[in-house]
Structure formats: C-alpha cells, structure tokens
Automatic annotation (TrEMBL):
PROSITE patterns: SMR (PS50828). Gene3D superfamilies: 3.30.1370.110. This is SMR domain-containing protein. InterPro entries: At5g58720-like, Smr_dom, Smr_dom_sf. The lineage of its organism: Eukaryota, Viridiplantae, Streptophyta, Embryophyta, Tracheophyta.
C-alpha cells in the first residue's frame, strides 16, 4: 500500500490518488481562508474593545528655553504621527511669575492653533494636544524650522 493508501482506506474510497490529493489541497486552502478570517475577526474585536483607549505621552518642557522647548515638542509631534490616537500632554510651567501665562505655554498654544490641532488647558501649567494619527505639519515646510528640528541635538 502506498503512502496515501491509509487516507484512501480511511475515506472509504477507491478514488485515484489525484482525487485524494485534490481534496487534501482543497482542505488546506479552506483552512488557510478560515485562519485569515479568524485573524480579521480578532482584529475587529480588539479595535472595538480598545477604540476608547487613548495613548498618552507626557513631556515636561518647563524650565527650558523657548526655542529648545519648541524643538522638543516638534520632535515628539513627529514621533506621534505613527500612533493612531494620542494625547500629548505638555507640561509648560506657569511662567516666571506663576500667572499661567508663560512664554513656552503661549508658544505651544500658538503652534497647536497654527497646525489646527485640538488642544485644551488641563491646568495652569499643562496643555493637552490631541494628535489624530498620520498628518503633515506645516512647521516642516518652513526651511528655518525644519533645519532647527533636523539639527536638534539631544545631548
């Protein structure tokens, strides 16, 4: 009895080996289709259960010079482009007088408005930016800004 004789006997058939192999190939094909559909269903379930979850990234810019702080913010904004839904919490501090009107905070808000980014003030020293996935930032179009961001040294 050949290598497929057991399969043929088990199936209770005297069909030619080509027919048995065709049925076996069809079974493999449909098993693969089932696996693909199962992965899709699992992904859909995951997305439905987790769509309300927002990734939160916090950066602390208070105490930095304004230009240095803005470069750090722009780098974080570019990194967050790859994340579908992120809340970028920016700690700006309240300014040297403690009035909540510091230079960094004003610069962060101006950048958010220029880039049409939804923002809110969480408290007098924190601004939250809602970044919504892939986008192009206008600050990359300005050569002087992009050079400053591109040549930023993290030392």
């Amino acid at each position: 009895m050949g290598p497929f004789g057991g399969i043929m006997i088990e199936c209770g058939t005297n069909q030619p080996i080509e027919k048995v192999l065709a049925v076996e190939d069809a079974g493999k094909h449909y098993r693969e289709l089932g696996r693909i559909e199962d992965e899709k269903a699992n992904r859909n379930i995951f997305e439905a259960r987790n769509k309300h979850i927002t990734n939160t990234v916090t950066i602390d810019l208070h105490g930095q010079h304004v230009q240095h702080a803005m470069n750090l913010l722009k780098i974080h904004m570019m990194i967050c482009i790859c994340i579908p839904s992120v809340l970028l919490r920016v700690i700006t501090g309240c300014g040297s007088e403690g009035t909540g009107k510091g230079k960094i905070k004003r610069s962060v808000i101006e950048l958010a408005e220029k880039e049409h980014i939804e923002w809110r003030e969480e408290n007098s020293g924190t601004v939250a930016l809602r970044l919504g996935g892939p986008r192009e930032y206008r600050f990359l179009e300005h050569e002087s800004d992009s050079d400053q961001v591109g040549n930023f040294n993290i030392d």
